[in-house]
């Protein structure tokens, strides 16, 4: 199982621009530009917009399309931004908070040809894909899948979520991904349970060094950590370590039965950790996934409205959920029905419009969908700052 949500990571490429501050270190050298706090000139802003023109056009296009749907059609069924594709349910670890080992979540794993057909159909409606599982590197054909996504179907963003234990056996992945999300909950090895992440720390760290050398840019690697009561101190160490290594840091809280652990809010150490994460993101001290607003909502369990079709989830056999995966309602199959548009229309006809939900599944994509729909300009401003 990877990154707790098994695709909640999905979501690490979904910022509206570059990280607020990316510092490239060589020995003890920090570029002067990283320390320059002056506001960008209009010319610099225009250059940035032109450089990211396809990305900017996508965001504004979706903003206006979804504004029409919300304000005129009065529906929460919004257009997809990125698609999470579970290519397998199999995993070589056994994390306590895993949502993918319940007996009712399993679906048949398609062969290579079938999987590539699903990729092709996803590409017609989104240029961003998150490949997850289970542990995707357990698939013998995962390198072929990633290569096809990036170079065959021309996805702009190809993220792969992994526990990192098998990366050295699947190095072809690193040639195709635009970003790698590695799930890691502690820096200290703990061999009590051989199938736990702490038991695999040494191997994961070795493979992270390998990936950093291959990808050539640490900001392409995100360390995704799941916060539980036992590892709050370890997560603080991970935060500092990511800053030292140049990795992007991302955190979510563990959930049981789809509900957050509210006991965390009573922990002074947890609250101090959240404060530290938000402060570093606000001040641009290191690359951290999300904005101060989204991190606050995510880690302190604030109210939000979820728009799940913004980040649809596709299972290994091509099944698509409506309105969301936690409700276990399958609206169709991409191989059979052909498109997400048709599947969501069928889901709405069968199950009704997306019901009100004040946010109980605290996954990054769910929280981001709230701000994307309800506070687009504030979200954009946070990323720019």
* Proportion of residues in β-strands: 5-15%
Helix content: 25-40%
Number of strand elements: 11
CATH topology: TIM Barrel
Quick one: overall form? globular
The count of helical stretches stands at 13
Nearest-integer average pLDDT: 81
Task: Report the order of strands and helices.
Answer: HHHEHEHEEHEHEEEHHEEEHHHH
Count up the domains: 1
Secondary-structure-derived class: alpha/beta
Q: Describe the biggest sheet?
A: 7 strands, parallel
In spatial order, strands of the major sheet run 6-5-4-3-2-1-9
CATH hierarchy class name? Alpha Beta
Please tell me the CATH architecture by its name. Answer: Alpha-Beta Barrel
Radius of gyration: 20 Å
Description:
With about 375 residues, this protein is an alpha/beta fold. The chain has a single domain, classed as TIM Barrel (Alpha-Beta Barrel). Helices cover about 40% and strands about 10% of the residues. It contains 13 helices and eleven strands. It has helices spanning about 30-35, 40-50, 55-70, 110-125, 140-150, 200-215, 230-245, 270-285, 290-300, 335, 340-350, 365-375, 375-385; strands spanning about 85, 130, 155-160, 180-185, 220-225, 250-255, 255, 260, 315, 320, 330-335. A seven-stranded parallel β-sheet has the order 6-5-4-3-2-1-9, with helices on one face. The chain has a two-stranded antiparallel ribbon with strand order 7-8. A two-stranded antiparallel ribbon has the order 10-11. Helix 4 (about 110-125) runs parallel beside helix 5 (about 140-150), helix 8 packs antiparallel against helix 9 (about 290-300) and helix 9 (about 290-300) crosses helix 12 (about 365-375). The longest helix is centred in the N-terminal third of the chain and has 19 residues, at about 55-70. It is globular, with a radius of gyration of 20 Å. It starts with about 30 loop residues before the first helix and ends with a helix.
């Amino acid at each position: 199982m990877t990154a707790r949500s098994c695709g909640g990571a999905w979501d690490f490429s979904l910022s509206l621009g570059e990280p607020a501050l990316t510092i490239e270190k060589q020995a003890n050298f920090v570029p002067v530009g990283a320390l320059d706090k002056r506001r960008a000139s209009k010319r610099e802003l225009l250059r940035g917009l032109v450089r990211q023109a396809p990305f900017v056009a996508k965001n504004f296009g979706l903003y206006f399309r979804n504004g029409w749907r919300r304000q005129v059609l009065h529906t929460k069924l919004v257009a997809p931004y990125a698609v999470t594709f579970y290519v397998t349910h199999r995993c070589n670890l056994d994390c306590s908070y895993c949502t993918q080992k319940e007996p009712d979540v399993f679906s048949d794993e398609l062969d290579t040809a079938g999987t590539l057909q699903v990729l092709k159909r996803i590409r017609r409606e989104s240029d961003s894909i998150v490949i997850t599982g289970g542990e995707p590197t357990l698939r013998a054909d995962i390198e072929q899948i990633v290569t096809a996504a990036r170079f065959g179907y021309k996805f702009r963003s190809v993220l792969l979520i992994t526990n990192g234990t098998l990366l050295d056996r699947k190095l072809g992945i690193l040639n195709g991904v635009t970003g790698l999300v590695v799930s890691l909950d502690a820096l200290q090895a703990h061999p009590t349970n051989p199938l736990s992440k702490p038991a695999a720390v040494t191997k994961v760290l070795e493979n992270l060094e390998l990936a950093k050398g291959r990808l050539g840019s640490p900001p392409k690697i995100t360390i995704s950590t799941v916060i539980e009561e036992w590892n709050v101190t370890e997560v603080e160490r991970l935060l500092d370590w990511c800053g030292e290594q140049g990795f992007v840091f991302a955190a979510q809280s563990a959930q049981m039965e789809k509900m957050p652990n509210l006991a965390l809010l009573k922990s002074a150490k947890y609250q101090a950790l959240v404060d530290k994460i938000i402060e570093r993101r606000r001040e641009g001290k290191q690359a951290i996934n999300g904005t101060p607003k989204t991190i606050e909502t995510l880690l302190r369990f604030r109210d939000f409205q979820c728009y799940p079709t913004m980040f649809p989830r596709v299972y290994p056999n091509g099944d698509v959920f409506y309105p969301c995966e936690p409700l276990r309602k399958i609206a169709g199959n991409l191989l059979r029905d052909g498109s997400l548009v048709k599947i969501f229309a069928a889901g709405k006809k069968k199950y009704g419009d997306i019901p009100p939900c004040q946010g109980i599944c605290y996954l990054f994509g769910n929280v981001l969908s709230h701000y994307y729909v309800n506070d687009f300009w504030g979200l954009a401003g946070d990323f720019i700052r």
